[in-house]
Structure formats: structure tokens, C-alpha cells
Design brief:
Layout (H helix, E strand, L loop, with lengths): L13 H10 L1 E4 L5 H20 L9 E4 L1 H4 L13 H8 L3 E11 L18 H5 L10 E6 L11 E3 L26 E2 L7 E5 L4 E3 L8 E10 L22 H6 L7 H4 L8 H8 L13
Antiparallel strand pairs: 1-7, 2-3, 3-9, 4-7, 4-9, 5-6, 5-8
InterPro entries: Phytyl_CoA_dOase-like
Protein name: Phytanoyl-CoA dioxygenase
Organism: Glycomyces terrestris
């Protein structure tokens, strides 16, 4: 199979950008069709069995596996899916890659787990070591739903809309101390095939799955190429599936990444996504990340 780049050919509208800047997230409804959902769901099931055999599941039987495409090459088409990818380049421009990704499978759990305060912003040390108020965006994420999460209580992600502009929230002195969710918190619901696009700074947490369904999701984090990958895979071009990817997909996984200034995007015409956007007149001099 040879992949063909088919990036969504329309930037977000000013109204969509305004909503994303205000709320910190947008929902993309019906992004995947039934065949795509099944392909992804089956891929997660395959990897889940490997992780189970290796003893790498949580005590509740949950899987959280980094390197989504390396562990599930079947998911490579999600990197620049035509119904989702324009959300990413509309915000970040052309000079970015996937720096972090993971696939998760959470079966139902019986009984209540011990309390743990899980609310956080993505980025880890980035949040301790940047001094601005609010912190810089730095990255955005796409979260693909492969199972029906249209009701609460299915392990849904919880968020506080608009909280990406907050550097802190109130929390307990210890993570194991019972504490209420932040004011304004909601559980994000969606059907299989829906996608959540969100700013990595939004305060969020995963809820427990007390339903009779198994939650299956994949997350892809996109960041400027001058922030290097958290997902470290040696010798990517020698992976058996590498040549099945198109140039934009290879860029997103760290290919086309020379050292020095070249790797930081100082030479746009050497970057596949820049050329793809330029050929379609999708660069925008009024928006800094998309300036020609």
C-alpha cells in the first residue's frame, strides 16, 4: 500500500479559530467512517494482546502505549487525515511534527478505585520552566475516538473549557486526598469516529470507565519541529512500513529532519508540508504560522 497525501484543503474559518482560542478545544464530528473505525479498533486490539502478554497493562487491565504509529502502523493514515489535519496546520502552520503520541484501551472496571487527583496540563516540565502568564501553547493534540463515548462514565476525558489560559487550578495538598473537580469541568462525549482537537494547555483528566464498553482512543500531539520528539524510534527509514508513507506523513514522524537550522524549518521549501500548502495557495500572509 502506498499512502497518498490528501490533506484537508481549507483552513479553519476566523470563527473556528476564535472558538478554539476562547475554549481551548473543538470537536470534529464524524471524522472517521465505519471502515476506518474498525481498522483502528482492530489495530488497538492486536497491540493490546501483545502488551498483555508482555505484562505491561495496568492493574485494572488498561493499556497506555506510546509511539502510536510505531506500535500500530495501521494508524499512520490518521497523521494527516483529510477531515482533521487542516485543524492542525491552520493553528501551527507548516513547520511541525508529531512529538508525542499514544494509544489507549480501557476496559470497564469493577468497584471504585482509590481517589487520585489527575487534573493536569500536558507538557510536564514545560509548565514548570516557562515563566509567562498564560504559558505558550507549544503544541496541540488530536484525540480519535474508536468506541462510543457519547455518554458520561465511559472513561471520557474531562476538561474545563477556557482553562488553557490558566497557569494553575486549585488542587489538594496530596493527590490521594478527595477533592472536587474544578468549577466548569465537563466530560467530553462523542460517537465512535469523532475527534477532539485541543490546546495542550487545557486542564484535563481522564475519568474511570464504569460502563459495559471498552474505551479505545489514539492521541497525536503536534509541535514545532524545533521541539524534538518525545517518541524516540531509532532508524525510522528502515522500518518495513516507512516507504508506504507519503512525504508529509514522514515529516510528521520526524523524517525530512536535517540537523541544525535545516531541522528547525529555516528553509521552508525543503519541508514537504510547506510545499503542499504552497501548491494549493493555502499559505496566508495575515497569519504568522502560515506566512509564505
Amino acid at each position: 500500500m502506498t499512502a497518498v497525501t490528501s490533506v484537508g484543503a481549507a483552513a479553519l474559518t476566523p470563527e473556528q479559530r476564535e472558538a478554539f482560542d476562547r475554549d481551548g478545544y473543538l470537536m470534529i464530528r464524524g471524522a472517521l467512517d465505519a471502515d476506518e473505525i474498525k481498522r483502528c479498533s482492530d489495530a488497538l486490539d492486536r497491540v493490546y494482546e501483545l502488551e498483555k502478554e508482555a505484562g505491561r497493562l495496568s492493574p485494572e487491565g488498561a493499556m497506555h502505549r506510546l509511539d502510536a504509529v510505531t506500535s500500530c502502523p495501521e494508524l499512520a493514515f490518521l497523521l494527516n487525515h483529510p477531515r482533521t489535519f487542516h485543524y492542525v496546520w491552520s493553528i501551527l502552520g507548516w513547520n511541525f511534527h508529531v512529538y508525542h503520541s499514544h494509544v489507549d484501551k480501557h476496559p470497564p472496571i469493577a468497584g471504585k478505585r482509590p481517589f487520585r487527583f489527575e487534573w493536569h496540563q500536558d507538557g510536564g516540565r514545560q509548565n514548570r520552566e516557562t515563566e509567562t502568564e498564560p504559558r505558550p501553547r507549544l503544541s496541540v493534540k488530536l484525540a480519535y475516538f474508536f468506541t462510543d463515548l457519547s455518554a458520561e462514565g465511559r472513561g471520557n476525558t474531562k476538561i474545563v473549557p477556557g482553562s488553557h489560559k490558566w497557569n494553575r487550578i486549585d488542587g489538594p495538598p496530596r493527590r490521594d486526598m478527595e477533592w472536587p473537580d474544578p468549577e466548569g469541568a465537563i466530560e467530553v462525549t462523542g460517537n465512535a469516529g469523532d475527534v477532539m482537537f485541543f490546546d495542550r494547555r487545557i486542564w484535563h483528566a481522564r475519568s474511570d470507565n464504569y460502563s459495559d464498553l471498552t474505551r479505545k482512543v489514539a492521541f497525536f500531539g503536534f509541535t514545532p519541529r524545533w521541539i524534538r520528539a518525545r517518541d524516540l524510534v531509532d532508524d525510522l527509514p528502515n522500518q518495513p512500513w516507512w516507504n508506504d508513507l507519503d512525504p508529509v506523513q514522514q515529516q510528521l514522524l520526524g523524517g525530512h529532519m536535517p540537523t541544525g537550522d535545516h531541522g528547525w524549518g529555516h528553509y521552508p521549501k525543503e519541508t514537504p508540508l510547506y510545499n503542499w500548502l504552497a501548491e494549493r495557495d493555502l499559505l496566508d500572509p495575515s497569519y504568522p504560522p502560515l506566512r509564505p
